[in-house]
């Protein structure tokens, strides 16, 4: 599954089940999880968690950058995108269900911006360490350095406490307990896929987004 960007409002729900990291590309920061590196997958590569990241729940919809602006994208997956089933567009406009997905995606992007600013505030406070320098993709991977956090200057501590960055730092540290190989039995596996019938999966996406358990009963950082 790979790298999944996260929004601020979902971190609280995911912190006990997924490892969380910070990524840096030039001046840009992101908060993400790397599915497949921890205990969230069983030996068949299926998610066995109580909650799932937003961009997993909305698949095949995703957010994509188009000429510097964000747009709703759709993966061309034949299991969900075909000539049969419910159309994505009606009379040249997005279908009502797609409009709801678009609204939720916009909310996610706002949360992703907040998570980015909080990650940058932790970097500015000097409490992060680089675990993986930038590679061919120009992204470097960072985590909270507990020793640096313990020695943070009072004014910087106050700043990250006020803006929510401190909560994110502790969440990232807690999440590292999930960064280990899976030992869960296959009998507990549950496919992280949507119904295969193309006329049902749009409703399944919205039901999944609106499920308070799937969404984690609200965010850890608002």
Basic shape:
elongated
**Can you give the helix content as a percent range?**
25-40%
| Poorly predicted runs of 5 or more residues | 182-199, 212-222
Helical/strand content category = alpha+beta
> How many separate domains make up the residues?
1
The topology string of helices and strands comes to: EHEEHEEEEHEEHHHHH
Number of strands: 9
Strand order across the largest sheet? 1-3-2-9-8
* Proportion in β-strands: 15-25%
Q: How would you characterize the overall build of this protein?
A:
By secondary structure, the protein is an alpha+beta fold. The chain has one domain (2-111, 128-142, 175-210). Helix content is 36%, strand content 20%. The chain has 8 helices and 9 strands. A 5-stranded antiparallel beta sheet has the order 1-3-2-9-8. Strand 4 (61-66) and strand 5 form a beta hairpin.
Brief synopsis:
The chain contains eight helices and nine strands.
Features:
alpha+beta, 9 strands, 5-stranded antiparallel sheet, 222 residues, 8 helices, 20% strand, elongated, two-stranded antiparallel ribbon
What is the fold's blueprint, element by element?
Elements: E1 2-5, H1 8-14, E2 20-25, E3 28-35, H2 54-57, E4 61-66, E5 69-74, E6 89-90, E7 93-94, H3 96-124, E8 128-132, E9 140-144, H4 146-150, H5 154-163, H6 165-175, H7 201-210, H8 212-215
Helix pairs in contact: 3-6, 3-7
